[in-house]
Design a protein that fits this description.
The structure is a single chain. The chain is mainly α. The protein has a single domain, classed as Four Helix Bundle (Hemerythrin (Met), subunit A) (Up-down Bundle), CATH 1.20.120. The protein contains seven helices and two strands, in the order E-H-H-H-H-E-H-H-H. Strands 1-2 form a two-stranded antiparallel sheet. The N terminus is likely disordered.
Length: 208
């Protein structure tokens, strides 16, 4: 679930109100559902047919939609939890990361972009777990933009992988998807550096 962009730069892991809500609430169940849909999506995308590729895209979009839904429900009901703040970005990274790897294996997405993005995502995920005892760092607007851009270009790349390659529409579609991929990669790297900077500041301030 996405945290409010107007949240403080960092919040103590034991902040008041964050541990009161039960872990197994609706937003967290939606997050776990998103994780459970990942293997279904991978199996469908891996199949060499138009029908399964389109089905994979549908599963991908449904899983991505739960990210917005669980965040909205959590904020409206006031049941944001520290578990959700950690599990939600993990679910996002698992979904998009799986899509990138499969698309790279299929020759649709360049491996250099997949590797660069995954290094950032895995590194920040590890840093989140390291920082959770000190503070839970709220998602930035850049981080949310990064996720949206990744979902857009991945969704677009799933279609040329089906039957658009070689057609005029396919050429235009592929070029647009590639440009968005470049933008998403840049935003992913920049937001990763920003997260590292905020984590360093929190650690420094707590040592003083």
């Amino acid at each position: 679930m996405s945290s409010n962009s107007e949240s403080p730069a960092h919040q103590p892991a034991s902040a008041e109100g964050q541990s009161i809500a039960p872990v197994w609430n609706l937003p967290n169940v939606l997050t776990m559902l998103r994780i459970a849909l990942v293997p279904v999506f991978v199996v469908l995308l891996w199949q060499d047919s138009t029908a399964t590729a389109l089905a994979a895209l549908a599963v991908f979009l449904i899983a991505a939609a739960t990210d917005k839904l669980d965040g909205t429900i959590a904020r409206r009901r006031g049941i944001v939890t520290n578990f959700g703040k950690i599990a939600d970005p993990f679910a996002d990274k698992l979904l998009t990361g799986a899509a990138m790897v499969v698309l790279s294996v299929l020759g649709v997405m360049p491996w250099w972009a997949t590797i660069l993005i995954l290094i950032r995502e895995i590194g920040i995920t590890v840093l989140r777990f390291v920082m959770v005892r000190r503070s839970v760092i709220a998602a930035s607007n850049g981080g949310k933009l990064k996720t949206v851009l990744q979902i857009v270009f991945l969704s677009m790349m799933m279609l040329p992988a089906v039957d658009l390659v070689g057609s005029p529409l396919g050429d235009w579609w592929e070029t647009t998807a590639y440009v968005i991929m470049l933008l998403a990669t840049a935003v992913t790297v920049v937001t990763g550096l920003d997260y590292c900077w905020r984590a360093w500041r929190i650690t420094r301030d707590q040592k003083q």
